[in-house]
Amino acid sequence: MIQFQFFPRSQGITPNIKSVIDCFIEANGKIDSDFNNLNSNAVLKELSKPLSKLGFKVELSKAKDDKINVPVLFGFNDKIDKCFNADALSNDGKIVI
């Protein structure tokens, strides 16, 4: 069963978020941990096609060139001080998985 919670809780989900949730619902039979014993990479592989259709960049391997770096802190002269690796990123950069 797919459960989600959107923040801020003072508003409902957006159409773009609903599309992402629908990807998880569509893949639920393949990724549900009650019935399958998949690691996170195998789950991401199942979600990669539907997310890509939505315009997401999806990490396809652990190779350095396939990593999706998302900056979170910037320093002097707009230098990236801190970033993390995402599994997927929307084309507008607003949704990070």
Give the total of domains: 1
Identify low-pLDDT runs: none
Q: What composes the largest sheet?
A: 2 strands, antiparallel
Roughly what fraction of the amino acids lie in strands?
Answer: 15-25%
User: DSSP helix count?
Assistant: 2
Secondary structure category: alpha+beta
Element string (H = helix, E = strand): HHEEEE
Categorize the overall geometry. Answer: globular
Number of strands: 4
**Radius of gyration, CA atoms, in whole angstroms:** 15 Å
- Going across the major beta sheet, what is the strand order? 1-4
Task: Compose a concise summary of this entry.
The chain is α+β, with helices and mostly antiparallel strands. It has one domain (15-89).
Task: Give a verbal description of the structure.
The protein has helices spanning 15-31, 40-53, and strands at residues 57-58, 68-74, 80-86, 88-89. The chain has 97 residues and is of the alpha+beta class. It has one domain (15-89). The chain has a two-stranded antiparallel ribbon. A two-stranded antiparallel sheet has the order 2-3. The two termini are 18 Å apart. The mean pLDDT is 93.
